[in-house]
Amino acid sequence: MPANQPPVDPAIRLQLLDLLAGFLRTQALHTVAVLGIADIVGDEPVTVEQLAAQVQADPSSLHRVLRVLAGSGVFSEAAPGAFVSTPLSGGLRTDAPLSVRHMAMFQGSDTYLAAGQMLRAVQTGEPTAEMVFGMSFFEHLASDPDRNACFNQAMAGGAGARAAAARDFDWNRVSVVADIGGGNGSVLVGVLGAHEHLSGVVFDQPHVVTAAQPVIEAAGLTERCAVAGGDFFTDELPAADVYVMAQILHDWDDERSLTILRNCRRSIAPDGRLLLLEQVMPDGDTPSYAKLLDLIMLVLLGGKERTESEWRALLAEGGFELLEITPRPATNLIEAAPA
After folding, report:
1. SS in 3 state form for 126-141?
2. Would you call 337 exposed, middle or buried from its count of C-beta atoms within 10 A (0-12, 13-18, 19+)?
3. Quick one: which H or E segment has residue 198?
4. Distance between CA atoms of 174 and 84, rounded to whole angstroms?
């Protein structure tokens, strides 16, 4: 280091140290999510001793985790050693619409392990999941029913936001919609529930799509919604007026994404529509959750988030014309038509 190099400004140093502590906040959120603390803490103060007794934890250790989270607005220490809920902690409740509880459980475990090898992903250009899990990410989910269930519940938490974006599309001239890679069917169920003239089908891998049937039954949509198992890379897709893909293409690099898009292009009607519910990354230094999500794709799957120009180019190469992007709080509705 040059002799005349000035010392790091103390404020800058503290800011960097705070950024470095992000992994501790992730694990603190994961811990309280697994223990279900947000389901217990409400408007009235609850002591750490009471909480620890209910979740079988050590009171002192639990207190140390909760006070860190309270410093970020997740819970509030209303009195020494006693906590109440806040809007942020409410987002971790199991019964909260759009709950983040299972996302915290999954990102603090499976995703966390893969992200710990990010350097390797940057050096090789390959996802780290296979090194961490001994197999690809989706093979890992298929081999472990508990992890698969946690992942599906994590995705369902955001599916409500994606379904809200999809519901606002003009469905008046549509009869049948297929959710490609539809998981447990949450997005399609939301659309069909809001538009009674529609029928639809959830299409996904056989071990995944089995989770959709209970969701469809609970919504009372068995007469209007079917399920179909298959591979969206190679299998013929269900006939429909509109194909919806909610956060599917971000799982894959451009080559694999083009394979999916070309399969959609082969199956879609000439006047059909493709709706993508995806992030659109801003250019430049603008902060965006999409840029963080892009790193999750890097380590787990080798996929990526994309800018508007990247989406336009990818769709064009896959046989589609990008018609419109409608920004929404949690996602974007990207409408495309066969070119």
Report:
1. CCCHHHHHCCCHHHHH
2. middle
3. none
4. 47
Query: Is 250 noted as a catalytic residue in this protein?
Result: yes
The b/e string for 28-54 (b: 16+ C-beta within 10 A; e otherwise) is: bbbbbbbbbbbbbbeeeebebebbbee
Structure-model confidence comparison of residues 163 and 297, the more confident one:
297
**pLDDT tens-digit profile of 310-323?**
999 999 999 999 99
Q: 11-34, pLDDT tens digit by residue?
A: 999 999 999 999 999 999 999 999
**Pairing assessment for the beta strands 332-338 and 242-246 based on DSSP bridges:** unpaired
Question: Per the residue annotation, which of 63, 102, 140, 250 is the catalytic one?
Answer: 250
Please check whether residue 282 is in contact with residue 288, taking contact to mean a CB–CB distance below 8 angstroms.
yes
For residue 178, list its beta bridge partners: 201, 243
Given a contact cutoff of 8 angstroms between Cβ atoms, the answer to whether 161 and 330 are in contact is: yes
Structure tokens belonging to residue 75: 């819970």
pTM metric for this prediction: 0.88
Q: Spell out the domains of the chain, with CATH numbers in brackets.
A: 10-94 (1.10.10.10), 160-338 (3.40.50.150)
